[in-house]
Amino acid sequence: MEVKMKVGSDGVAVITFSNPPINAFAIPIIASLKEKVGEAINNDDVKAIVLTGKHGKFSGGFDIKVFQNGKLSLLTDFSINLVGNKIEDAKKPIVAAIEGLALGAGLEVAMGCHARIATPNAQLGLPELSLGIIPGAGGTQRLPRLLGLPKAIEMMLTSKPILSEEGKTLGLIDAIVPPQELLNVSRQWALDIVEERKPWVRSLHNTNKIGSLSEADEIIKVARQQSKRIAPNLPHHQACLDVIEEGIVQGGYPGVLKEGQVFGELVVSDNSKGLVHVFFAQRATSKVPNVTDLGIKPRGVKKVAIIGGGLMGSGIVTTLIVSNIYVVLKEVDSEYLQKAIKTIEANVRGLVAGKKLAQSRADKALSMIKGVLDYSEFNDVDMVIETVTEDLQLKQKIFSEIEKACPPHCIFATNTSAIDLDLIGEKLGCQDRVVGAHFFSPAHMMPLLEIVRTEKTSAQVIVDLMTIGKIMKKVPVVVGNCTGFAVNRAFFPYKQSAHMLVLLGVDLFRIDRLITNFGLPMGPFQLEDLSGYGVAVAVGKEYATAFPDRSFYSPVTDLLVKNGRNGKNNGKGYYVYEQGSKPKPDPLVLPIIEESRRLAILMPQGKPISVTDQEIIEMVLFPVVNEACRVIEEGIVVRVADLDIASVLGMGFPSQRGGIIFWADLVGSKHIYTSLKNWSEKYGNFYKPSRFLEERAMNGVPLSAPVSSAPKTTS
Ligand SMILES: C[C@H](O)CC(=O)SCCNC(=O)CCNC(=O)[C@H](O)C(C)(C)COP(=O)(O)OP(=O)(O)OC[C@H]1O[C@@H](n2cnc3c(N)ncnc32)[C@H](O)[C@@H]1OP(=O)(O)O
């Protein structure tokens, strides 16, 4: 970690910062940068300054670890004294030479400079909102002044970077040059400013891109409405617009002051802590002890066979072919095969329509599938992923067949969402090649890939699957083997909790509404409609067998099916599904619910229980935390934070809440334990707190603390 300065014979001081891998502005970097800029300004031999980063990058931004360490007082100094007073208001011109990326504080420092020269394809952005904060160091003020309000607001609210080419068109970048010319052109540019051949722009004082007050007012008003709709649970989006507005109405400097104040409030908020936790937790999933630290090189997986072209199979094929991987898709007959191909085509069309895939790539992707009805094409596949129905015997039969049909290096993966892998691979001679590749529905959209290893799965197979997962733009999380693995196991009580509440007399649509307000993309009943009741019933049986002490039978789903309701599949579930309109709660389902309540006989004295909105959220989610505790205790996850990432990416648990365990620690294990104990006394074993939760609550140890550090109770 260092900042170096070299003064050339041309009188230009080049100040280079280095903090691999992304040149984050850590505290020592900021202090040295300030010192070096001061030195250059006071040195009479220096006419102008160039700021640049080492390792092919300008900077990925402020060192986010500082947010977790709480040393935040430095931020005002960084924003006002370094970027404002020292750089922008310097009496010598300063040019930013940007290679690779300038994000967050990286771009903010560059915008404080008097010109910006970039290499082609450099990424420029202010992604701070994705961390629950707003851009600091004047970012909220200088970006609108450099490229106009609409684009600046879009970049901040979406956290999406632009490339230098677009930056040049919009006025953020002054010139684009090849990497080998970057420093020379930047030096010359700085000297040209000295000689007044190029303008000396202090962007905070620039007003020509802002437009009139009424225009700005209208743009901000529209952005506020959009934000309310798109990010209803993320108040920092509105806070960002408040700060931008302050700068427009009061001027750039008051805007910077307000930005500092709001930044200071947001950076200590639970939302920001949750999002920062998710940022680091996601990156940590790439590190699996005794797997990724063994120096194993991934083998290329070029051709994959998929068995079964249903919803999951089609989704997995889609994600493979758009990632340039050849697929052999096996179905039982040509009718099913045609149906699967049609689904895949529709998936690909959807990706094109959503601008996630270019039409030219879509055509190429679709040419990469070969549909088959037998195993004759399996002799050169590198991996098979089985995606047939949750039937153990069928899966065992398929695995014995593929062992004979595939080459000896082939990986045998199953997409089962609940069945124990040891049972599936029981009869195979090559159990080291058996692994779970658990995708989440819809597989071509959901980012999580749960990689399930057994005691026998080889490290090579895990490394290969992690690598192919990343090529497919998934986040692979390696977990251990048990019924439901990490995500479905932890979340198996989710549906049950919701059913329990309904059987206790609570309105199902109220539950869905509250869970959506909490931040999940949909409530448990709408989710059940979407995934289909067949899966729910099959998986429910697995859990009932594996965890009989905490499973209960809810008659609701069976009664729905008996009444001709199959969920979204046939347009009728808890909700009615009509083409082109949002799902509508169906009042016709209420008599079915009434009948279920009569059969279940759970309501105390036959009367619905009375619960607050907060209690409903807790009664749905605390049983999930309880089961997650068992997952942690049994060592199913490598580290507790893996469960947070898995819950966010697999279940849509709101990322601003940091994932299921991070959230539980904010709520407090004691409260969770006491509530569950109380409910278990009133409503039965389903709520009974696990031993792990009890121990942690009693000893005041966070649930996220590593397992070995939790003191055991003597009782
Ligand atoms: C005052 C200001 O307004 C406040 C700010 O600047 S807040 C920060 C704004 N910047 C950001 O949000 C960018 C965050 N970083 C990223 O998006 C990506 O890391 C990146 C695009 C820069 C690079 O991506 P990629 O090459 O895939 O590398 P990636 O694996 O993500 O990161 C490499 C390492 O750098 C770390 N890292 C990345 N950005 C970091 C940051 N801003 N602070 C601290 N560490 C960071 C990662 O944790 C990872 O560490 P590890 O190797 O120990 O796991």
Determine the strand fraction and express it as a percent band.
Answer: 5-15%
Which range best describes the helical content: under 10%, 10-25%, 25-40%, 40-55%, 55-70% or over 70%? 40-55%
Assembly state: single chain
Total helical segments: 29
* Unreliable parts: 709-715
Shape: globular
The first-level CATH class of the largest domain is given as Alpha Beta
Average pLDDT score: 94
Q: Which class best fits the helix and strand makeup?
A: alpha/beta
Structural domain tally: 3
User: What profile does the largest beta sheet have?
Assistant: 8 strands, mixed
Second CATH tier, the architecture of the largest domain: Alpha-Beta Complex
Major sheet strand order = 12-11-10-13-14-15-16-17
User: In the CATH hierarchy, what is the superfamily of the largest domain?
Assistant: 2-enoyl-CoA Hydratase, Chain A, domain 1
Number of strands: 19
Radius of gyration: 28 Å
List the helices and strands and how they pair.
Layout: E1 2-7, E2 12-18, H1 27-42, E3 48-53, H2 65-69, H3 74-88, E4 94-98, E5 101-103, H4 105-112, E6 115-118, E7 123-125, H5 139-147, H6 149-158, E8 162-163, H7 164-170, E9 175-176, H8 182-194, H9 213-230, H10 235-250, H11 252-267, H12 270-284, E10 303-307, H13 311-321, E11 326-330, H14 334-353, H15 359-366, E12 369-372, E13 383-386, H16 392-405, E14 411-414, H17 421-424, E15 434-439, E16 448-453, H18 459-471, E17 475-480, H19 487-503, H20 508-518, H21 524-531, H22 533-546, H23 556-562, E18 575-576, E19 584-585, H24 590-600, H25 613-633, H26 640-651, H27 660-667, H28 669-683, H29 691-699
Helix pairs in contact: 1-3, 3-4, 3-11, 4-5, 5-6, 5-11, 6-9, 9-10, 10-11, 12-26, 13-14, 14-15, 19-25, 25-28, 28-29
The chain binds 3-hydroxybutanoyl-coenzyme A.
